[in-house]
Amino acid sequence: MNTQDLTTLTADKVIDARGTACPGPLLEAKKGIGAVKVGQVIEVKSNDKGSRKDLSTWATKVGHEYLGLIEADGHDRLFVLRKK
């Protein structure tokens, strides 16, 4: 998904993990993915740059789809689509 598409995407659940360091944002994403249905999207807000790699790797490993990220004011908005 390209950045333009992500800017118009409305997540079904937003997780604000700003201010937490690794592995905080990843753990919050793991908890949050269970709160949405298959086919829905979570957005994780994080200012930990390690989240970029962590969320992408985790999503692929467990069978979800990492959609990408948007750089916002001092943090990243990372999107994951629940696939199972």
CATH homology-level superfamily:
TusA-like domain
Q: What class do helices, strands and sheet pairing give?
A: alpha+beta
Q: Give the strand order, joined by hyphens, for the main sheet.
A: 1-2-4-3
The total of beta strands comes to: 4
What's the CATH first level?
A: Alpha Beta
Mean pLDDT across residues: 94
What order do the SSEs take from the amino end to the carboxyl end, as H and E?
Answer: HEHEHEE
Largest sheet: 4 strands, mixed
State Rg: 11 Å
Sheet-strand content, in percent, reads 25-35%
Q: Distance between the terminal alpha carbons, to the nearest Å?
A: 19 Å
Number of helices: 3
As residue ranges, the low-confidence spans are none
Stated plainly, the CATH topology is called Translation Initiation Factor IF3
- How many domains in all? 1
CATH architecture: 2-Layer Sandwich
Walk me through the structure:
By secondary structure, this protein is of the alpha+beta class. It has a single domain, classed as Translation Initiation Factor IF3. Helices cover 35% and strands 27% of the residues. A 4-stranded mixed β-sheet has the order 1-2-4-3. A hairpin with a 4-residue loop joins strand 3 (65-71) and strand 4 (76-81). The longest helix has 13 residues, at 50-62. The mean pLDDT is 94.
Outline:
The protein is an alpha+beta fold and 84 residues long. 35% of the residues lie in helices and 27% in strands. The protein has a single domain (3-81), classed as TusA-like domain (Translation Initiation Factor IF3, 2-Layer Sandwich), CATH 3.30.110.
